[in-house]
Amino acid sequence: MTSGLNTSTIKNPIEEPEERRGPTNSQLAWEDLKKRPPAMISLIFLIIICLWAIFPSFFTAIFTGNDAFEINLRCCYLKPPGFTDVNGNYYLLGTDQQGRDVLSRVIWGSRVSLIVGIAAVFLSGCIGVTLGMVAGYFGGIVDTIISRIIDSALAIPFILLALSMVAILGPSLQNVILAIAVRTWIVYARVIRGTVLSVKENEFVVGAKAVGSRTNRIMFRHILPNVLSPAIVIGTLYLGRMIIIESALSFLGVGVPPPTPTWGGMLAHGREFLDTAWWIAFFPGVVLMITVLSVNLLGDWLRDALDPKMKRLTD
Each residue of 27-43: pLDDT tens digit? Predict the structure, then answer.
């Protein structure tokens, strides 16, 4: 006999609990960022600077309406912040020794600083990561040669090397980026070499070798993803230094040539008027300082987000 009950409608009284997934790494990083007001403020400020660099004409039209390259010595020579000319043009941060609007030049200067910083970080990172992976993976004579090149490069003062290269190649945006990148790749190479020495001993690398995977596949498929985190952290922390170096070269007169506005160039031009027109050098210096500080604070957060071990040590 069969019972009249439909077994398909009978529910199991003991139901298996649904599997709950925890927050992802990006969600944890975002929650950690919201708990750090300095890092969050730094992120907001850097977003503003990036927007300045991408759309300088748009923001100069909104904030000032004045051309950053227009020279007007007749009525706008060394005017203080808040000056308004006879045509009703308002100069929030004053004018420089050639009658140009300081705020407009500060906004346009962000483009050069970010281009040099990001391009130098990317170029030096590509060189350093590649050489570091080659040295750490192959070892032996290859590691020895690359290590001796690094030691030799460290013996040359950085500013002296950059000044020599720009003086030989000529001042331009491309040459400034090359002069900075040709020296800073060393930091990437040393850190990545040590990381590769540890990663290549892991089981997944040993297994890839055992099944006959090619060297290129092992290096770029298995090792590279595991060394990107320290490379990203180095790049973030060194971005502020790249901006400082570009400003230093412009300050010394071997950076991006005028009339292109740069923060370092504005500092160099304003040092002659510190007693009479302090605003020429003060405002670019403040923006430069806050930008570098914001990059460093955001880099500290990114380091903790990508390297939890380092965060536990600092806590």
Answer: 777 787 888 888 899 99
